[in-house]
Protein 1
Amino acid sequence: MLPTHRKPTLPGKILLEEFLEPLGISQSAFAAHLGGSWTQPKLSAIIHGKRSITEQIALDFSDALGMSPEFWLGLQSDVHLWEASQNRTKISRIRLPLTGRRTAKNHKTISI
């Protein structure tokens, strides 16, 4: 469930505060552990919300930390949905009939 009164916690903040700091691992050391294209500036951009968690990043974090890739992608998705909800006009809900079974064939087509 998305919080409505505040922006969800950034995945990078969770990475820093719930994993790296308690484990005593610096950003540079974690980037080195991840290897490949990982650098401290890339990791710092994620921690400060300047870079999003992609599928590849989620897989890398999952391998290194044991949390599922879906955990990391879910955190990022929550942030993206909250940001999108802040700058849109809400669309009114279509009212469905309250009697009988609710199936698509029982409803009239809406013309726009």
Protein 2
Amino acid sequence: MLQRFPNTQILRITGGPTKSPIWLQMLADLTGMILEVPNIEETGCLGTAMMAMEAAGENPPELLQQAMRQVQPNPEHFEAYQQKYQRYQQLVTTLKALH
């Protein structure tokens, strides 16, 4: 994903994974990115309200920022995950050579 969108700095996450603080922290640590998570469960309704506000000439991003919380990555965990991923890539390369 980051190869296709290299300027991405914040990931917005919705749905079931947002209910698990552990999963959210792991995702932030794995990606090294800030996660933004809605403070409401009905994100479809929020999106509809934002589109209606924009059509009415209002500024929905302000509403969105108020309705979000952030999960910050832990740089030490990010580095540890990167090292493990490099080992995984080496293993894949080795196994491909055997096949």
